[in-house]
């Protein structure tokens, strides 16, 4: 570049104008760069302040009907005591508390020495009576033989007397001989009668001996049965709930040894108010929950309702029976009995979820069944922002500030319980700290 030494002032003027322009450009850029974040923040602030705060809840099922729930304690369906029927020393117990027993199973043994002695004595007497019957039978046979002999003698004597009478008529013999023959015939007849009576006497002796024999047979059978009582047997199938005595103790007739519970079914007795008794009937299905099994719901039935109420508390005992096929339900567990097990579960929401006068049902009967349509706002995530959608739902019963939803809202959906101001369909909202999270 060639500088013209004759035009120095023009060069200086150009340089001053360039410097001035560069200065103002720098200030402008600095101003723009400094004001951009503030402007963006200012623009975002109204957006955050403009979102309506709302309380959001998750739809769940429930019932508005009063739940008749009472507490009781589980117990075996029945408890049977194993008792001794004879006196004796308890030698052995084969079961302890918690052990299972089958019907007819031997659970204990008594000392049967005295019972065995009594049985042997009765058996000996029975054998003696059997011999007596044999002797009496022999006597009957002998008496019958004598009867037959006497009958033959009667025949012979009668024939002799007849011949003697004939000879007497012919004059062949003296009268004395004929009379003697007739006397012998009468004597033979009397001997026959005596022999026949002896047969009857001997037969009666046999019958008496047979009666004593039969009676002694009963004594022997009784002695055998009494000896069998020395073996203690379970009267039912169940579980031992209590051991009343210990081996070595003397047990009296009727004395308890064990208690066995039938756990095939379990019963729960609850005290029900007389005011609720009309809602309960024998055979009614009920829902039972045990604190020991919180995740399980059992179905039982009302077995009986006591005819007698507590005169002071006005409570009536109601017995509920629960099937216990697996045998896992024991005795003494806390049970909660709900007599409204058949109530249909529906989505229940608070009345504050409905905006406008249409959702205000405070003036209506709390338990009315009027069904009408109302608008409810469902919350959804649209573009990462919570947005409400107006939805028409059909209402059912109302009670205690809550409303049943018959249709239009499913369990698990999020809905607006309360908002800071009236909402519009498609409006972006801001969830409050009280909102439930899905």
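^ structure tokens above, recovered residues below v
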């Amino acid at each position: 570049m060639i500088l013209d030494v004759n035009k120095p002032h023009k060069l200086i003027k150009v340089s001053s104008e360039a410097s001035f322009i560069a200065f103002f450009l720098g200030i402008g850029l600095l101003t723009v760069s400094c004001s951009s974040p503030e402007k963006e923040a200012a623009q975002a602030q109204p957006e955050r302040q403009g979102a309506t705060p709302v309380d959001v809840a998750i739809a769940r099922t429930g019932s508005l009907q009063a739940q008749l729930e009472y507490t009781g304690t589980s117990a075996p369906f029945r408890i049977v005591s194993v008792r001794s029927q004879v006196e004796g020393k308890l030698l052995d117990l084969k079961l302890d508390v918690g052990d299972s027993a089958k019907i007819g199973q031997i659970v204990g043994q008594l000392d049967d020495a005295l019972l065995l002695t009594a049985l042997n004595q009765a058996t000996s007497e029975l054998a003696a009576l059997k011999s007596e019957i044999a002797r009496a039978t022999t006597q009957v046979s002998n008496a019958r033989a004598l009867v037959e002999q006497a009958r033959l003698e009667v025949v012979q004597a009668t024939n002799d007397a007849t011949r003697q009478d004939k000879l007497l008529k012919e004059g062949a013999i003296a009268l004395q001989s004929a009379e003697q023959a007739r006397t012998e015939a009468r004597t033979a007849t009397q001997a026959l009668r005596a022999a026949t009576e002896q047969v009857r006497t001997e037969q009666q002796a046999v019958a008496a001996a047979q009666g004593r024999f039969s009676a002694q047979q009963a004594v022997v059978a009784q002695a055998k049965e009494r000896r069998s009582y020395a073996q203690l047997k379970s009267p039912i199938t169940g579980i031992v709930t209590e051991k009343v005595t210990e081996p070595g103790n003397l047990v009296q007739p009727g004395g308890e040894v064990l208690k066995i519970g039938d756990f095939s079914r379990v019963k729960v007795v609850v005290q029900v108010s007389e005011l609720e008794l009309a809602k309960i009937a024998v055979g009614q299905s009920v829902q039972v929950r045990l604190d020991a099994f919180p995740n399980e719901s059992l179905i039982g039935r009302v077995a009986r309702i006591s005819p007698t109420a507590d005169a002071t508390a006005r409570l009536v005992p109601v017995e509920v029976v629960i099937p216990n096929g697996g045998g896992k339900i024991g005795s003494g567990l806390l049970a909660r009995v709900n007599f409204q097990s058949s109530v249909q579960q529906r989505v229940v929401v608070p009345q504050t979820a409905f905006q406008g006068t249409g959702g205000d049902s405070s003036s209506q009967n709390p338990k009315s069944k009027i069904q009408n349509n109302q608008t409810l706002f469902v919350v959804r995530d649209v573009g990462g922002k919570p947005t409400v959608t107006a939805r028409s739902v059909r209402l059912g019963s109302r009670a205690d500030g809550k409303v049943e939803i018959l249709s239009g809202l499913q369990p698990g959906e999020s809905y607006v319980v309360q908002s800071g101001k009236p909402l519009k369909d498609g409006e972006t909202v801001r969830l409050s700290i009280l909102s439930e999270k899905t």
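Confidence is low (pLDDT under 50) at residues 1-48, 356-371.
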